[in-house]
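tokens incoming
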């Protein structure tokens, strides 16, 4: 697969000039950050060739557990362009979708180390310039990132450039929210200062009137 790193980095850097979030509950922040960040990654991934695409799908069909293969490669009822069609899910995948799904395959903790290494090597082979040639820290999905055990596996934060982009995105989101809270607090403080000044003026005026009696 091909990953347009320049496009990815420039898209993330451009966010500095835009408001990413309004104020949101803290319990929703992490989920929203994941939802907002993912498209920046996905739009930068493409297939290197049709042969590569077939290679990935053949691998998934061969090594997926039955429930995965049935879910992803058997015809399913889907709404496409206003029509109800029965097509396999994989036919609707982008290259990024396929890569993310591939990383959830062969995810059983019972796998022997040789199988784990084989799967990692295959991911590294097809992920192209997303993964470096040197050693890789394989990052697993956090439990909050999947609903079913079937969808566990490796996180796309395994890809170093994505992990760095996500960290920048997270800090930028937190900074913008903190700045928003600062603006709100400053407005509140300005209101209080104005109230204090008005009341001080009233106290001084009435004190003068009282002393003049």
């Amino acid at each position: 697969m091909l990953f347009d790193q320049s496009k990815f980095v420039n898209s993330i850097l451009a966010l500095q000039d835009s408001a990413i979030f309004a104020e949101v509950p803290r319990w929703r922040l992490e989920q929203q950050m994941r939802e907002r960040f993912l498209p920046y990654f996905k739009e930068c991934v493409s297939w290197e060739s049709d042969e590569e695409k077939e290679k990935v799908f053949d691998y998934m069909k061969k090594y997926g557990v039955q429930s995965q293969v049935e879910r992803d490669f058997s015809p399913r009822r889907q709404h496409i362009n206003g029509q109800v069609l029965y097509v396999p899910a994989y036919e609707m995948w982008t290259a990024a979708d396929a890569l993310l799904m591939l990383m959830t395959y062969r995810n059983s903790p019972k796998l022997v180390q040789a199988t784990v290494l084989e799967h990692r090597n295959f991911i590294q082979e097809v992920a192209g310039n997303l993964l470096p040639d040197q050693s890789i820290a394989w990052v697993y999905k956090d439990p909050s990132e999947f609903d079913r055990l079937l969808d566990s596996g490796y996180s796309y934060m395994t890809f170093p450039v994505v992990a760095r982009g996500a960290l920048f995105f997270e800090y930028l989101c937190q900074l913008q929210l903190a700045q928003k809270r600062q603006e709100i607090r400053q407005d509140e403080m300005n209101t209080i200062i104005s109230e204090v000044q008005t009341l001080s003026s009233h106290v001084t005026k009435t004190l003068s009137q009282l002393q003049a009696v």
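note: Residues 78 and 132 are 37 Å apart (CA to CA).
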